[in-house]
Design brief:
By secondary structure, the protein is of the alpha+beta class. It folds into three domains: about 90 residues, Butyryl-Coa Dehydrogenase, subunit A, domain 1 (Orthogonal Bundle), CATH 1.10.540; about 80 residues, Butyryl-CoA Dehydrogenase, subunit A, domain 2; about 150 residues, Butyryl-CoA Dehydrogenase, subunit A, domain 3. The protein is built from twelve helices and ten strands. The strands form three sheets. It has a four-stranded mixed β-sheet with strand order 1-4-5-8. Strands 2-3-7-6 form a four-stranded antiparallel β-sheet, with no helix packed on it. Helix 9 runs antiparallel to helix 10 and helix 10 runs antiparallel to helix 11. The longest helix has about 35 residues. The chain is globular, with a radius of gyration of 20 Å.
């Protein structure tokens, strides 16, 4: 039995990959991350939206494509491989999943309609639910929110932020509302923007449905973890490809370094460890839509295991490049740092494995 991506999923994935190769080579990525060319970043975002990635998980009746998480996972893999400086995990995956499972009919219609037209873009601040800090104290009361949330993701082009309290209740805040203070957080990954947002009696629209609120946010976090794993998967593939290409070109002692047994072993180890991650991540995405019993467990496995393998790949791929691997000239550090931050997003491997154990009543 063959388990892999369908022709349609591969076609969608290849289109995104080709778009990034044509419009966002490493020189463009360097300019965008250094803040030298915002117009280039805007054009990238406009182009990727024109490809339809903002509509992947939005129902067809609301103007979306009505596809499943495996399509989103395939796209995320290409975005990681191209180290795209664009929002995706929160804006176009976690937000629609949250609305699907957490909103009532009227809220779904409003938000899905606006998202499909790209009139509303979400950033996501769910850390209060799975990894709150003592100083956050994010509280919902009487349609108001107070406190702060850390490491809000996908702030590029966000018009609204989606929040969760400790109980798993989800709410939406318009970022133009009164009582909001946003602070950019400094991380090693310059391809994405992370923020701390403070709220002082700010209006919030609480999502209301007939399901348990924890089910809605649990689904959103599971989906986010799977596509984050896919992003790391794509970034790891890019680093392996670059290491192999470099080993075929770089010479020492009048021989290409790829002919040395030690370098061969490093490249073979990276490839052999990463290969099973493809089926793991794809199966997790398939389980999300088709296997309620296993989707939590598979999401945790995909996030934790891919995080560890990607960390190993990023280290060894840099070592294959020798001293050049640490320079800005090659730009290898963009993928290296992205993998490192992905490891922390939506829970570290230790935290996620603990959740996997609880899901199995261990």
């Amino acid at each position: 039995m063959y388990f892999g991506l369908s022709d349609d999923q591969i076609f969608f994935q290849d289109n995104v990959k080709k778009f990034l190769e044509d419009t966002a080579p490493i020189d463009v990525i360097r300019k965008v991350t250094n803040g030298q060319d915002k117009s280039c970043k805007d054009n990238l975002h406009k182009g990727i939206v024109n490809l339809g990635i903002n509509n992947i998980l939005i129902p067809e009746e609301n103007g979306g494509l009505g596809l499943d998480l495996l399509f989103a996972t395939a796209v995320s893999q290409s975005l990681g491989e191209g180290v795209a400086t664009l929002p995706f995990i929160g804006s176009y995956v976690m937000a629609p999943i949250s609305i699907k499972y957490g909103a009532n009919d009227s809220q779904q219609k409003f938000y899905f309609d606006e998202m499909s037209k790209n009139s509303i873009n979400f950033s996501i601040g769910f850390s209060e639910f799975f990894g709150s800090r003592n100083e956050s104290n994010l509280v919902f009361s009487d349609n108001k929110v107070n406190g702060r949330t850390f490491f809000v993701i996908d702030n590029d082009y966000a018009t609204h932020v989606m929040l969760s309290d400790k109980k798993g209740q989800i709410g939406v805040v318009n970022l133009k509302s009164a009582g909001i203070k946003e602070v950019d957080l400094t991380t090693v990954d310059k391809t994405r923007i992370f923020r701390e947002i403070c709220f002082n009696d700010t209006e919030i629209d609480i999502l209301k449905n007939t399901l348990n609120s924890n089910e809605a946010i649990s689904n959103a976090i599971d989906a986010g973890r799977i596509v984050t794993a896919a992003d790391s998967l794509g970034a790891s593939k890019a680093m392996i490809d670059k290491a192999v290409d470099y080993s075929k070109d770089r010479k020492q002692f009048n021989r290409v370094i790829g002919s040395f047994q030690a370098v061969k072993h490093m490249c073979a180890e990276m490839a052999s460890e990463l290969e099973p991650c493809y089926s793991l991540v794809w199966h997790a995405a398939h389980s999300f839509d088709c296997n309620d019993d296993d989707k939590k467990l598979m999401a945790c496995h995909a996030k934790s295991h891919t995080s560890d393998v990607s960390k190993m790949v990023s280290k060894k791929a840099t070592e294959v490049h020798g001293g050049m691997g640490f320079t800005d000239l090659l730009g290898l550090h963009y993928w290296f740092k992205r993998i490192g931050v992905n490891r922390q997003i939506l829970g570290t491997p230790d935290l996620v494995r603990e959740e996997a154990a609880k899901a199995q009543n261990l």
